[in-house]
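Input chain follows. Return structure tokens only.
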Amino acid sequence: MGYEHSEEEHKNIIPRIGFSFILFCFGFLWKPLFFFAFLIVGYDIIYQAVKNLVHKEIFDEKFLMSLASIGAFCIKEYPEAVMVMLLYQLGEYLQDKAVDKSKHSIEALMNIRPDYAVLNGQKVRPELIQIGDIITVSSGERIPLDGVVTEGNALIDNSTLTGESTPIYVNEGTEILNGGVNLNGYLKIKVTKKYTESTVYKILRLIEESAEKKAKTENFITRFARIYTPIVVILAVLFGLGLPIITNIDFYSAIERALTFLVISCPCALVISVPLTFFAGIGGASSNGILIKGGNYLEQLSKIGTVIFDKTGTVTSGVFGIREINSNNSEILKYAAIAESASNHPLAKAVRNAYGGEIPEITEIKENAGGGVEAAFEGKMIKAGTAKFIGVNPINTMGTVIYVSVNDFYIGNIVLSDVIKSDSASTIKTLHDMKINTAIFTGDTKERAETLQNIIEVQKIYYELMPADKVTKFEELINENKLHTIAFVGDGINDAPVIKRADVGIAMGGLGSDAAIEAADVVIMDDKPSKVVSAIKISKKTMSIVKQNLSFAIGIKVIFLILGGFGIMTMWGAVFADVGVTMIAILNALRAKIIKL
């Protein structure tokens, strides 16, 4: 099949089918009604077939259906002629509904496009807002641009954006992405990106790109149909004209056999079900917060043999947190927070956030470059910094260690590290269970890298890699693993070259860099490593359904064509071989949208 009804035709087709079917039933009492039933249900198909003939587009399903049904009328097979068109139109209608359904989850993403932004109390187009502007978002409104909350707090529904059903809490200082809905508060947001650089804009562009990129399987089916259709038409003509000459079959029987052969031969199940399966798979992925830029990448995902992760921002959160505190002094965290109170370093912020208490204003603070800081507080001299600065022996552990002393008496240390994402270890384990190899790229030292490897049990970890080293190392791994597909998962601008080079490049899209998202084939909107597993599972299920449809459709077609060629198959059987097989394939294709993860 493949004739796409306009919106108006879509509304009218069911009444046409219904009225035509009523006339069809009464046609057994008065045969001229078969003719009216045929015209009512099939006039648009015949018109399109004639129109295509004028444009030299001959061998399509509309031509085959028109030729077969009109031919059936010529040999006085009136019920069969009407039923061919009735079932074909019914199949077209159900196909359109199936496509609409599979589009729904993708089109839902289009609803995240903001209609306006509120600046100085006025609604303006988001495109007019500049970086640094302060916009306001009231309860029930959509976040129009990326930014940082400067005032207020609220729960934000990001379900359409990331696939995450649980609202997130934001307050002053929280980075916020556009596309989410403010559920219950009033926010002031300082804009950090123009609309054309925002999360929503990138998503919408990715959706547009995804429709343009076909999988190899889809391209094969298109080429196959172009060759297959004219061959079967020629064979049908040979049946109709040749059989009466070389056998004792009469002319009418030969024509009936040829027309039956034509109806069977329509490659509808192949031409429609395969791209529909890919479309449904991409739709199912998008509803889970995974944007796949095209059917070709969905197909590649199913072949992955190795997944390589960047560490910071991918396996870890990219935010420092307290890993452990080694001290007998219960106030060590307070002392460290006081010493670090004037610093903007990420480690200092992590210590202050971990302490969480009120920090008094400290006026006497001295910073020693590369060593640490010292601060006077309530008659005490507090120092926090490196082991050398404090004058103690360093400990060997994963992460960065802040050593603390009070009045030159060492009271212990605080270990900070880039927080490992909660689902990193389970992701690695699941990939291993799926017989997929894993590795990590990091710039960390050997000791820190090996500690991380032990925690999440990744198979290989490549450490002390500078940004330029990642591409070189990746090229080496490609040469070592030429027999299977390699995916790379990253989020930073320095990951973009490797993401682009990978067979399948995957970017963390929530807080990932623009460059990484642009280079990627797959974008994970909520930055969860486990979504890599979800994407692979979706692709494998989709490709399994594609193979089922190909095997089923081709197998049935071949059997029925042979039976039709020998005159064993009737026109009713031919209709099943075309419309029936197509509908079964379409219903099977829609299963790709229903993903149990």
